[in-house]
Predict the structure.
Amino acid sequence: MALAAKAVQARDDDDDEADSRGHGFCTATAQLLFKACGFEARDDLYIAKGHCINVGDAVEPARCLREAKEARSEAGKFCGEQLEWRRGGLQRARRAAL
């Protein structure tokens, strides 16, 4: 499977000027970090599932999988909290720039 990545021109300042599609660099970065966080949480879930299927007795795999899913849910909430924190920082920075 081939993955395509779109090149993004980074700026060396902290402003949130719009790119050609009208999206701000800082906003786009926050969105990409949110997406990466979600992928990391998903990866961790699959790694945990791999560990769970190797648990010895019949009861442990079910508990292990339940805990892995709970951890994935918590990680997803954390990713959302990080995104909201970043958005809040962007709003504060915009207000301070006025």
Q: What stands out?
A: DSSP finds two helices and no strands in the chain. Residues 1-16 have pLDDT under 50 and may be disordered. The CA atoms of residues 16 and 24 lie 5 Å apart. Residues 60-97 form the longest helix (38 residues).
